[in-house]
Amino acid sequence: MQDFITKTVAAAEGQPQRLLEMLRAVQQAYGYVPPDAVEFLSAQLGLPRGEISAVVEFYGFLSSSPQGVYRIVFSDSITDRMLGNQALFRLLADLLQVQPGVVSSDGLVSLDFTSCTGLCEQGPAALVNGWPLPALTEDKIARIAGLVKQRIPLLDWPGYLFEVNDYIRQPGLLLQNPIAPGQALQAWRERGAAAVLEELEVSGLRGRGGAGFKTALKWRLCAEEAGPERVVVCNADEGEPGTFKDRVLLRLYADQVFEGMTLCAAIIGARQGFLYLRGEYLFLLEPLRQILRSRRELGLLGENISGFGFDFDIEIRLGAGAYICGEESALIESLEGKPGVPRNRPPYPVARGYLQRPTVVNNVETFLAAAAIGVYGGAWFAAAGAGRSSGTKILSISGDCARPGIYEYAFGVEMAEILRDCGTEDVLCVQVGGPSGTLIDSSELQRKLSYEDLASGGSLMVFNRGRDVLGIVQNFTHFFAHESCGFCTPCRVGSRLLQNQLDKIINGHGSAGDVAELTGIAHLLKNYSHCGLGQTAANPVLHALQRFPELYESRLKKISYEPGFDLDAALEVARRMARRDDPAAHLAQTEEEAHD
């Protein structure tokens, strides 16, 4: 093991910030990260053992205890549940005679759940040793069980088990007009950095990851920052359940994404770039590295790019199963080989990012769009869209629809049109922007996709009238409680309290007072959490209470109330609280209402 660690550290050039990469290598070689490995890494990197152990414990794909030779995890996102993942999970557990969450007695297999695999449109899905198993059926489960029992190496498993499809159902402005390698860089050379930045300004392009910060402004702020070398980071850690567009873009348009990163580097003066790839997308790693090698051969990466007089290269870093790393400062912490805990801000990454250097962090779709704007111009992009929401948005659509997949729309499109295009019937509600986004019901389908109305990082999940809304909310609430990084008390404790309180109501043990308490916890989370995860974790609970209060009432415990007690009025109080954002007013009134 010591020889292996020595070689692993040498391959990572002894850089402590590449600790996650080294730990992944150890996990792959030994099935877990043994204490001796932590000891050897500590000695060779000069890091305290506690710091290394903290990283192991933080990431879901690392383990400090032995796992099975075949480590199988099923996606437990709501869309996978709707497609029958629970029954398939139990079938595989029975066939392999293994208990969930426990390594089999012979050490052959471990079976468990993970939050989401990024294969929402082709579930039920699972991962085996990090490799995707999409569109699972009973026949596939039986085949997988047989292969495991026979100890067949993964390389010898039939290819159809790992076949991931890319369903682009409706391409739009960006997907119909890809650029050739080098085109955006040629435009930069001919026009200059200031002119290209101006085109980005004219385009109105905002970050497509959800926050919607103006791209031109972010790049300009970073370029103007005094200090050490600048860095470009592409955030490909799309962990929001229901979102898979970046996976498709990296499979089909990666060259243009890398072009966008290189264009950014040319404008801000960066020499180093990273693509932070979601750990669930291990199967994309080698194809993406091949595209990088091809760009180097074409002179589009490396030293003196195409004779343009600047150096820039891109390295791919793989995550290890932590949703919180989609937050840009948590992602930077992970890039530095640490637990992905969001930083205090300010300073912002444009001033102090990776290794305290000025850093631009944008997501896959943003760099794809920026490259196209560099070639076709800002007016071309701004002509699409509506109001302050210019251009197009690429959506991942899944759930109760006939044609799940990738759709691209100009901003301003109504939800009703999107739902018609993807083939929905008898819609009950739609989750826009993933669990952290907005839940709308069937009376709101005239609402528009835009930053002014319904903003979305890219996820749209459809639910018909046969679905249990509270079951959906429960799935989302458990997701946030599981994915909380634990840094701040409001989120660490509040997300668990929210989960437990909701479970109590759904299981029929709650009263009207418990619904009021639920909204109280939700507002504490929203107003006092450190980062966006905690601030949005209660959205599903609050939005469902606003739109479907009768569902909460139907689950309340049948108890005898004091004479004159008005249950409907009590629930209306809870509903009003669900709409309120002022924590001081909320706490003051909650005390009085609780007394009543």
Task: Tell me what the structure shows.
The chain is 45% helix and 14% strand. With 596 residues, the chain is α/β, with parallel strands linked by helices. It has five domains: 2-58, Arc Repressor Mutant, subunit A (Orthogonal Bundle), CATH 1.10.10; 71-165, 3-Layer(aba) Sandwich (Glutaredoxin), CATH 3.40.30; 169-382, 3-Layer(aba) Sandwich (Rossmann fold), CATH 3.40.50.11540; 385-464, Roll (Ubiquitin-like (UB roll)), CATH 3.10.20; 469-595, Up-down Bundle (de novo design (two linked rop proteins)). The strands form four sheets. The chain has a six-stranded mixed sheet with strand order 5-13-12-16-14-15. A four-stranded mixed sheet has the order 2-1-3-4, covered by helices on one side. Strand 7 (270-277), helix 13 (285-297) and strand 8 (313-318) form a beta-alpha-beta unit. Helix 18 (469-483) runs antiparallel to helix 19, helix 20 runs parallel beside helix 24 (567-578) and helix 20 packs antiparallel against helix 25. Mean pLDDT is 93; it is low at 581-596.
SSE map:
Elements: H1 2-11, H2 19-30, H3 35-45, H4 49-58, E1 70-75, H5 78-82, H6 85-96, E2 109-114, E3 126-128, E4 131-133, H7 138-149, E5 168-170, H8 183-191, H9 193-203, H10 215-224, E6 230-236, H11 245-252, H12 254-268, E7 270-277, H13 285-297, E8 313-318, H14 328-335, E9 359-363, H15 364-376, H16 378-382, E10 385-386, E11 389-390, E12 392-399, E13 405-410, H17 415-422, E14 427-432, E15 438-441, E16 459-464, H18 469-483, H19 489-506, H20 512-528, H21 532-536, H22 539-547, H23 549-555, H24 567-578, H25 583-595
Parallel strand pairs: 1-2, 5-13, 6-7, 6-9, 7-8, 12-16
Antiparallel strand pairs: 1-3, 3-4, 10-11, 12-13, 14-15, 14-16
